[in-house]
Specification:
With about 325 residues, the chain is of the alpha/beta class. The protein contains twelve helices and 13 strands.
Length: about 325
């Protein structure tokens, strides 16, 4: 058995996989809100208990290995993260599972998701821009959710190898007058504004309040309410013009940042858009605003327009990537 997980700032997923040759077959899963648990060990314990109740006897050497995609950077076998409330240590997780540390993997969640690309099916992808993919050329994975994660995939001679990065923490570079206003508003609250402050879930509220200060929604006063979800819902329902403009601005900022990442990596093998937000705003991503902002890079606009862009529809991509990484570590 292989245990794999996606541990995010808002929600978490654990999946137990059976190994069938070089393929993984999911047999049991648990989805939960991160805030429901005080630490990852408790979450794993609950998972094992519930899986055992379903007939899967665990914690007695049944795990060949385990892999976790985690919302943060992995430094010295620990997770460094702005958005995840847990302290995650590779050794403690291994002890909790009673498997060797060498069979326990911690990966950046976007690194894990990018690792899943080789195992996804055509139905798992939605084409935003057809482009002309070049074999063995670099690829890029960009995912906005609670935070903003990005990874680059390089061909190493045998397969695509994922290089994790923390590009979401780079300085935000406004490209329009309105984005300058958003930057100035955020600078009043924080000394440094990174891209993630705009291109993430919290960016919807930041844009709305900076550009439309005269439009105040009641849900802004309730910290338990997801402002991003409410703004996008009203935008699609066309019940609030400010929300519609906010969604449009956010989508352009997302496309522009994906284009910035494309300039850094020249990913003529393809750009893949993941994360939870993309699935919730698919109609907006498909209307052309994202791709236009992606390509709007002066002298290289025509070249970027030839890069294929896909939305990853499979929400389990980080779990799959972590699971296959764990399978490789197991030696089976």
């Amino acid at each position: 058995m292989i245990l794999a997980g996606d541990l995010g700032g808002t929600k978490c997923t654990l999946i137990l996989f059976a190994v069938e040759g070089q393929r993984l077959r999911p047999v049991y899963r648990l989805n939960a809100l991160t805030a429901e648990f005080s630490n990852v060990e408790t979450f794993v314990d609950i998972f094992c208990e519930r899986a055992s109740n379903e007939g899967y006897r665990l914690k007695d050497g049944d795990f060949a290995s385990a892999g976790f995609g985690v919302a943060g950077a992995i430094v010295n076998d620990e997770v460094v993260c702005n958005n995840l409330p847990w302290t995650i240590n590779r050794k403690r997780v291994a002890e909790s599972l009673r498997i060797p540390v060498g069979k326990t993997l911690l990966l950046n969640d976007v690194e894990a998701a990018a690792s899943s690309l080789a195992h996804l099916e055509s139905k798992d992808l939605l084409e935003l821009n057809p482009g002309i993919p070049q074999p063995r050329a670099p690829k890029v994975y960009v995912a906005a959710g609670t935070g903003l994660g990005e990874s680059i995939l390089f061909w190493n001679g045998n397969r695509y190898q994922v290089s994790a990065c923390e590009a979401g923490l780079t300085d935000f570079a406004p490209g329009t007058d309105r984005e300058i206003v958003v930057l100035q508003a955020l600078r009043k609250r924080m000394p440094r504004v990174c891209t993630e402050e705009i291109v993430s879930g919290r960016g919807f509220r930041a844009i709305h309040q900076a550009i439309f200060p005269e439009v105040h929604h009641a849900f802004f006063d309730d910290p338990t309410v997801d402002a991003a979800a409410n703004i996008t819902q009203q935008a699609f329902a066309r019940t609030c013009a400010a929300c519609e403009q906010t969604l449009h601005m956010w989508t352009e900022a997302y496309g522009s940042e994906a284009g910035n990442m494309a300039l850094r990596a020249l990913p003529f093998g393809g750009v893949y858009i993941g994360g939870g937000i993309a699935l919730k705003i698919l109609p907006k991503l498909k209307d052309g605003a994202f791709v236009r902002a992606f390509c709007d890079k002066t002298k290289l606009a025509a070249e970027l327009a030839r890069i294929p862009i896909y939305v990853v529809l499979n929400q389990d991509a980080p779990v799959l990537g972590a699971g296959y990484a764990a399978l490789a570590a197991s030696g089976t």
